[in-house]
Amino acid sequence: MIKREWMIALAFLAPALILLFSFTHYPAIQTVIDSFWSTARGRRPSLFIGLGNYARLLEDDIFRRAMINNAIYAAITIPASVALALAMALFVQGRLAGRSFVRMAYFTPTVLPLIAVANIWLFFYLPGFGLFEQIRGALGFDPRNWIGTPDTALYAVTAVTVWSQAGFFMIFYLAALQTIPPNLRDAAAIEGCSNLTFFRRVTWPLIMPTTLFISVNATINAFRTVDHIFVMTQGGPNNASMLLLYYIYEQGFRFWDTAYASALTVVMVVILALVGIGQFFLLDRKVHYK
Predict the structure, then answer these.
(1) How does DSSP assign 79-141, residue by residue?
(2) Rounded distance, CA 190 to CA 183, Å?
(3) 10 Å Cβ neighbour count for 124?
(4) Which CATH architecture describes the domain 54-286?
(5) CA 130 remoteness from chain centre
(6) Are 239 and 65 in contact (CB under 8 A)?
(7) Structure pTM?
(8) Which residues pair with 41 in a beta bridge?
């Protein structure tokens, strides 16, 4: 009977396991293997070069630039998205006229394709005619090319990411806030507890599991969300907005150096794993699951 149950279970799991291995685990393993080989060129076959691709990373100025840009990008998008999502969730949770409409307005950027979002923000940033430039002109400021200037290009695309993903994270915070028992608020009001104290001592500890989940997802997005880079800057000007995943795309599909792109991918996955593990160790102590 036990063997029959195992056979039935494996039969149901087999399609999912096959797809998971074929499109997730096997490509990951093959990427690690390819990172130790050179890229085949014409009649020249691929050769085993060991850590040659990884040694090349240490001498690659664009790679270092992409790493610095990605660190800045993540350092801004992660806390900004989490803070904005929490602020929006707290705002739309209470009694508010047109609350459903406000929630829909906050969530709308999430359902838009990021390519469409990038085109919308291109109009906002358009020098001389864009929305921001119209406002700056009315206030007497000189025109500015936000995505065409190295000093502002990275921050311009960072703002797009925060705007597009904060509404998605808001949904999780809103669900977490609605699970907090109302009697806790009533008891705090009887004791004369202020809203700030209640948030700091009750609300924030109770929504820490959601915060951990959102922060991990925001970290992943900081390394994998580059659709708007394709449309807005293509890593420029002068690699000012070059991010690691876009650099991997350029090496793998533009210059067809798949072996070097594999090494870059391994580095990115290792970074994500270390950051994710670090987040769990740092935040898990503050998480209350009951």
Answers:
(1) HHHHHHHHHHHHHHHS--TTHHHHHHHHHHHHHS-HHHHHHHHHHHH-TTTSHHHHHHHHTTP
(2) 10
(3) 18
(4) Orthogonal Bundle (1.10)
(5) 26
(6) yes
(7) 0.88
(8) 44
Q: How far apart are CA 97 and CA 103, in angstroms?
A: 11
pLDDT at 65: 95
pLDDT of residue 203: 86
Token pair for residue 249?
């795309």
Let me know how long the chain is: 290
Tokens of 183: 């009697």
Three-class DSSP category at 192: coil
Question: What CA–CA distances, in Å, run from 88 to 165, 166, 169, 178?
Answer: 12, 9, 10, 14
Listed by start position, the domains of the chain span: 54-286
Per-residue pLDDT, 80? 95
- Answer whether 176's CB lies under 8 Å from 210's CB: yes
Sequential DSSP letters for 221-251: HHHH--HHHHHHTTT-STTTT--HHHHHHII
For residues 137 and 52, is the Cβ–Cβ distance under 8 A? Answer: no
**Close Cβ partners of 273 (under 8 Å, ≥ 6 residues apart):** none
Could you say which residues of the chain have pLDDT below 50? none
Nearest to 146 by CA among 174, 164, 180, 123: 123
- List the structure tokens of 1: 């009977």
